[in-house]
Amino acid sequence: MDLRVMRQIVEIAEHGHMTRAAETLGVTQSALSAALRKLEDELGTELFHRTGHGVEATEAGKVFIEHARITMLAADQTTRAVRSLVGLETGSIRVGAGATAAGYLLPGAIQAVRARYPGLRFSIREAGSAQVAQGVLSGELDLGVVTLPIDHPRGDELMVVKEIRDELMLIVPEGHALHGRKTFRWSDIEGDPVVAFEAGSAVRKLIDAAAAEHGVGLEVVMELRSIESIVQMVRADIGVGFVSKHGLPPNMGLRCKDGALTRRLGVVRALDRLPSRASAVFEGELLERL
């Protein structure tokens, strides 16, 4: 006797009708009747007798159903306890990422996983690539999204499980000479005030290097970490700025005509640690979406 048979008998008792019970269970009435007969043969007694409107449990059937419900409840509690242990019910997932990934790449995957496992808790640390890499290596983070190549002395201890191509785009205020255009050259913004990501960040290094390659020194007037903050400062006419294509507001964004400002992002985890069940589920969802 197994749990499946117990559930079938309980369902028959709750419906009081073989056909409706079979429909609920997704089996044919003949298969359900055969399972009932087999169980009654094993027990040596009838569990139900027919009435004018369906079936009704015998005294033996009532005893069986009572104990079946207790057994099914214990089985469900056992399943929940095991799932909790492996982290799919009450576990936590710790992810580190820069502004682009934290704001625009992670939310969809988090939403999907939370819909399936609402007991999971997420801790998202928004930080630069070097700090994220360090967090993954130290075990403070389960997973990270960093700019590649990994700028860390122990970068070879990280596994890149997925690469994502990103492009940085220029955004300008409405009154700017470039407003409404689709492309720009570095010479177009020479001398313009720039709202930039903080110095030392991977994105900032890429932008500074590209500008310098074309003989342009950027006039940085403000440094921020958040894409949304940069967008709002540009809209307030503080200066021009650069953001990921994933975070572009509608009708904004100019591609660099002197050479696309592309970068590679990588989803990383430590080579020497197996991911928890919860972390593995989230990683799978994130990779599928990317």
How would you describe this structure to a colleague?
This protein has 290 residues and is α/β, with parallel strands linked by helices. The chain contains 9 helices and 12 strands. The strands form 3 sheets. It has an 8-stranded mixed sheet with strand order 4-3-5-12-6-10-8-9. A two-stranded antiparallel ribbon has the order 1-2. Helix 5 packs across helix 9. The radius of gyration is 30 Å and the shape is elongated.
Summarize the structure.
With 290 residues, the chain is α/β, with parallel strands linked by helices. The chain folds into three domains: 84 residues, Arc Repressor Mutant, subunit A; 97 residues, Periplasmic binding protein-like II (D-Maltodextrin-Binding Protein, domain 2, 3-Layer(aba) Sandwich), CATH 3.40.190; 97 residues, D-Maltodextrin-Binding Protein, domain 2 (3-Layer(aba) Sandwich).
- In helices, the fraction of residues equals 40-55%
Q: Round the Cα radius of gyration to an integer and report it.
A: 30 Å
Percentage of residues in strands: 15-25%
> What is the global morphology?
elongated
Task: Give a quick account of the main beta sheet: strands, pairing sense, barrel closure.
Answer: 8 strands, mixed
Annotated CATH topology of the largest domain = D-Maltodextrin-Binding Protein, domain 2
Q: CATH superfamily of the largest domain, please?
A: Periplasmic binding protein-like II
- Number of helix segments? 9
C-alpha termini separation = 45 Å
User: Structural class, please?
Assistant: alpha/beta
Spatial sequence of strands, sheet with the most strands:
4-3-5-12-6-10-8-9
In the CATH scheme, the class of the largest domain would be: Alpha Beta
The tally of domains stands at 3
| Quaternary | single chain
**Uncertain runs:** none
Order of helices and strands: HHHEEHEHEHEEEEHEHEEEH
- What is the count of β-strands? 12
CATH architecture of the largest domain: 3-Layer(aba) Sandwich
